[in-house]
Design brief:
By secondary structure, the chain is mainly α. The chain has a domain of 133 residues: Tetracycline Repressor, domain 2 (Orthogonal Bundle), CATH 1.10.357.10. Helix 4 packs parallel to helix 7 and helix 7 runs antiparallel to helix 8. The chain starts with a helix and ends in a 10-residue tail after the last helix.
Length: 198
């Protein structure tokens, strides 16, 4: 049975997540979080030294839940192209759950970006490595140096992140278009078939 302290912490995390996702980091105050969670600001500061620390914990928790879900679903899918299609659709659909303010704030706070990039690197290395290995084993992709190709894909992702971290996205369509173009490149490269976007 959860203690009163654990119940308060879980409620804090749940309500902070809701507020940050819907309003972004900058528009939410510690007072807003405390009031929405039905706890005191002092309770928040027992767990987190600052709003930034709380935001980072919320974002990392969201990423962790997302990665667990992706891994579970990917294990049920056979075929490399189907896995890539799943990733693209998942990212497009998931992006609809977050406000533009949330994305902008994540990308404009250097310390948050550093943490996101670090976590994304670790997950991407595992995910891309597994996809490439499976594709080679099944003869769906040519024999390649797995470590090198994995690092190349991660470098592309990091390059995209760096380029667009300062961009002010005005619509969800812009974000979805970016996701779609990346996965289009992943599937078809420069010399792909008819499905390559112009």
């Amino acid at each position: 049975m959860a203690t009163q302290s654990e119940i308060k912490y879980n409620r804090l995390m749940e309500k902070a997540e809701e507020l940050f996702i819907n309003l972004g980091y900058r528009a939410v105050s510690m007072e807003d979080i405390a009031e929405t969670a039905g706890i005191s600001k002092m309770t928040i500061y027992k767990h987190f030294a600052s709003k930034e620390d709380l935001f980072i914990e919320v974002v990392l928790s969201l990423m962790n839940k997302t990665y667990i879900l992706i891994e579970e679903e990917m294990s049920k899918i056979t075929g490399i192209l189907k896995k890539i299609d799943y990733l693209m659709q998942f990212n497009k659909e998931t992006s609809k759950n977050y406000s533009i303010a949330f994305y902008k704030d994540c990308m404009s706070i250097p310390y948050v970006m550093e943490k996101l990039i670090e976590e994304k690197y670790n997950f991407s290395k595992m995910m891309f490595g597994n996809i490439i290995k499976e594709g080679m084993e099944k003869g769906e992709i040519r024999k390649v140096n797995v470590d090198f190709m994995t690092e190349m894909l991660i470098m592309i992702l990091e390059g995209i992140t760096a380029k667009y971290s300062k961009k002010q996205f005005e619509s969800r369509e812009e974000i979805e278009g970016l996701v779609e173009n990346f996965y289009d490149f992943l599937k078809y490269g420069l010399l792909g078939g008819d499905e390559v976007k112009k």
